[in-house]
Design goal:
single chain, about 350 residues, alpha/beta, seven-stranded parallel beta sheet, three-stranded mixed beta sheet, binds UDP-4-deoxy-4-formamido-beta-L-arabinopyranose
Length: about 350
């Protein structure tokens, strides 16, 4: 019996594979390397000392997905695969809907065909749209403010409707806040295509000299220092959240939703300063106009995950910055860095 991890070579996927293998689970990994690299798989093997089956396949290829289920006894699926860049989704909505939805349909249809009914979905805090208050709780109203968010929301709704129609499914929807950090080994980490959109990879690339300075989008928000506040969460904590969710999948069929965040908000400037401490030098930045679509404050109430999954974030902003820096400084060009 194995767990299928779609998108297992990606940032959150690769760290989750490590935690699953360390927990003694048998995994089968699928990835098309669209926004990921085979060296992440080498990193997983090196960190854990364990091997696993890998399929270089695209979830849009339903015959390939079918073959994975035919060749393996898949009992649970953790579904990370998908496009994830918000501004790109605004430019290319059809591409996002087409890939993220059709791919997920293929996974769910194949699960159904093979009688596999245990599904963990990589959702996002983006499904809260513009929350009226913070901290954000799981029962807050949901809305999508960009095509990427729409795909997450549609898949969440689909899971609820599938369960309503057939209550043998167990669906766990994990809403991640802002994932950062890297494995402490420095062997796997975040390596986005092109110029990063998110704060931490941009910051690490400035610190390592790949980019000249950080643009801080707005310092006139109604927050303590004027810059936006977010709930940054160490990717290893997130990964452990998935291991806990798998245990929950075994309890009883239902749909469960959890916020995975620390519950603490840090401003952009807080992160910059914590990062400067971690890397030991100043990081140049410039204040720029607000970025369209940003909200002033977003952090979660993680109580439900603590009470029901027994999960709680262990790492603080210092470790997040130290581990992000270790990854980036050891791999200045990400996975394209030449091995010494
Ligand atoms: C954080 C803060 C920026 C870059 C996004 C998605 C969300 C989720 C996580 C997947 C904001 C500021 C950023 C920069 C900056 N993804 N910033 N300069 O927007 O909170 O969330 O990633 O599910 O759906 O929307 O994350 O890292 O882009 O921004 O000043 O170069 O950093 O304005 O305040 P965000 P982020």
């Amino acid at each position: 019996m194995a767990i299928l991890v779609t998108g297992g070579a990606g940032f959150i996927g690769s760290h989750t594979c490590v935690e699953l293998l360390n927990a003694g689970e048998d995994i089968v990994v699928m990835d098309n390397f669209y926004n990921s690299n085979s060296r992440a798989l080498d990193g997983i093997r090196k960190i854990t000392g364990k091997d696993f089956k890998f399929y270089e396949d695209d979830m849009l290829d339903i015959a390939a997905v079918d073959q994975i289920f035919a060749e393996n006894d898949i009992e649970q699926v953790i579904h990370f695969a998908g496009y994830k860049c918000v501004p790109e989704s605004v430019q290319k909505p059809l591409m996002y809907y087409s890939n993220n939805l059709r791919g997920t349909f293929n996974i769910l249809e194949t699960m159904k065909k093979y009688g596999c009914t245990k599904f963990v979905f990589s959702s996002s805090a983006t499904v809260y749209g513009i929350p009226a208050t913070v901290p954000v709780k799981e029962d807050f109203p949901l809305s999508a403010i960009n095509p990427y968010g729409s795909t997450k929301l549609i898949i969440e709704n689909l899971c609820r409707e599938m369960y309503a129609a057939d209550n043998t499914w167990t669906m766990i929807l994990l809403r991640y806040f802002n994932p950062v950090g890297a494995h402490e080994s420095g062997l796997i980490g975040e390596d986005p295509n092109g110029i990063p959109n998110n704060l931490m990879p941009y910051l690490t690339q400035v610190a390592v000299g790949r980019l000249p300075y950080l643009n801080i989008f707005g310092n006139d928000y109604p927050t303590p220092d004027g810059t936006c506040v977010r709930d940054y969460i160490h990717v290893v904590d997130l990964a452990v959240g998935h291991v806990k969710a798998l245990k929950k999948l075994e309890e009883k069929p239902e749909v469960r939703v959890y916020n995975l965040g620390t519950g603490h908000g840090y401003s952009v400037l807080d992160v910059v300063h914590a990062f400067e401490k971690a890397c030991g030098h100043e990081v140049k930045y410039q204040i720029k106009p607000r970025r369209a679509g940003d909200i002033a404050m977003c952090y979660c109430d993680p109580t439900k995950a603590k009470e029901e999954l027994g999960w709680e974030a262990q790492y603080g902003i210092e470790e997040m910055c130290q581990d992000s820096w270790r990854w980036q400084s050891q791999n200045p060009d990400g996975y394209a860095t030449e091995e010494k």
